[in-house]
Specification:
With 169 residues, the protein is mainly alpha-helical. It is built from 8 helices and 5 strands. Helices cover 41% and strands 10% of the residues.
């Protein structure tokens, strides 16, 4: 069960970004919608149908498709038609959090992403089917519990020198 935030912040620099400044008012509205609608997730990848976008924005399907294509061509989003998943390229730039609780939430969300190519697009990595979120940092108390659990030795090689914790889920 994932608890999602009920709000999304929009940085004031959104309005001074050179890309945003060249958008029409309708394109700005649609882009704001993409980063603030109630389907967004902490990881920046979420599932939403074009029909839902039509309902929420009041645009018809042709307009939604036109704006999706525009932002794809501009390198700002990716949209998978089969899975209805969208990835917002600059999401992590403006919404990435260092909080361990938020990072844990992101890791849980990433497990449910169907189009794993969106991981790389967003800067997340996957190795041998394991999701690696390099921004995930565990708390000092959890770090101590892990070291205690494994008798202050590496779980893999049993060394007791230069111990670190992995950020692999």
């Amino acid at each position: 069960f994932i608890i999602m935030a009920t709000f999304r912040k929009v940085h004031t620099c959104f309005w001074s970004d050179p890309f945003t400044q060249m958008l029409t008012p309708e394109q700005k509205y649609f882009y704001l919608y993409l980063i603030t609608n109630d389907k967004t997730r902490q990881c920046g990848i979420y599932e939403i149908t074009k029909r839902q976008m039509c309902y929420d924005t009041g645009y018809n399907i042709d307009t939604i498709c036109k704006y999706i294509d525009f932002f794809i061509e501009g390198g700002k989003i990716r949209y998978n038609i089969e899975t209805c998943e969208i990835a917002i390229k600059n999401w992590r730039k403006y919404n990435d959090q260092t909080s361990p609780k938020v990072q844990a939430c992101i890791n849980k969300e990433l497990l449910s992403i169907k189009d794993t190519q969106l991981f790389e697009y967003m800067g997340y990595k996957q190795q041998n089917g394991v999701i690696i979120n390099e921004n995930y940092r565990i708390t000092e108390s959890l770090r101590k519990k892990i070291f205690t659990l494994y008798d202050n030795k590496c779980h893999k090689c049993k060394s007791d020198e230069n111990l670190t914790t992995d950020h692999i889920i």
